[in-house]
Amino acid sequence: MEKIIVANHKMNMTLQDTQEYIKVLKNASFKPIICPTSIYAKIFIDSGFETALQNVYFENKGAYTGEISPWQAKSLGVKYVIIGHSERREIFKEDNKQINKKIKKALENELKVILCIGETLEQRANYQTVLSKQITEGLKDIEDRIIIAYEPIWAIGTGIIPTNEEITETTKFIKSLFSYDVDVLYGGSVNKNNIEALKEVNVVSGYLIGGASIYAEELIKIGEVVS
Ligand code: 13P
Predict the structure, then answer these.
(1) Is 9 among the catalytic positions?
(2) 101, 187, 135, 108: CA torsion to nearest 10
(3) Would you call 27 helix, strand, or coil by DSSP?
(4) Distance 184 CA to ligand 1 centre (A)
(5) Distance of CA 100 to the CA centre of its chain
(6) Regions of the chain where pLDDT drops below 70
(7) Does pTM surpass 0.90?
(8) Is 137 a catalytic residue?
(9) pLDDT for 164-175, tens place per residue?
């Protein structure tokens, strides 16, 4: 099956970077899901890319200065949303309760949800407890299918990645918590140099790529290796 490639640009590109990026990426032989800084979402949609937001609020409309709602995202043509990224959890203090509300509102608006989960290095020995809590509380009272992105926090932006055996074991554990065959993406320091080795992990449905994904040529290389 074709691997899902999600490019999380975080807060890294200017409008000019975005325009150059699209010129190059338009020629890719595979279809990445682009998760740009929200102000550029429309540009990617108009250029024919499947587009995700990096976050949404848990209300559809109202006096919430600075927030973006799933309802607004849908009206723009956004198809996916990342919810619960570790940077949102750590820096913006999002907890599982808020994440649960965001997921519900996103699903109500027919957005596909990519729920990020992951453990810190200190939690590594207890990863099962940490990940199950994030899943159980994040998905409380939710039946709809979602996508999981497993991103060990110690692997994000560090250049350190788990072994293929560790990714396989953790992915299988995550899958065991679902009543359906949930798609699990791996994220954390994926780049053009380690993708050959990473693609040997068959249980993974794709990759959530941060730093390496802001370079169109590098993203193309990664996509070509796995597709
Ligand atoms: P890096 O690929 O830069 O480690 O980031 C991973 C990530 O957080 C994607 O959401």
Answers:
(1) no
(2) 30
(3) coil
(4) 15
(5) 16
(6) none
(7) yes
(8) no
(9) 999 999 999 999
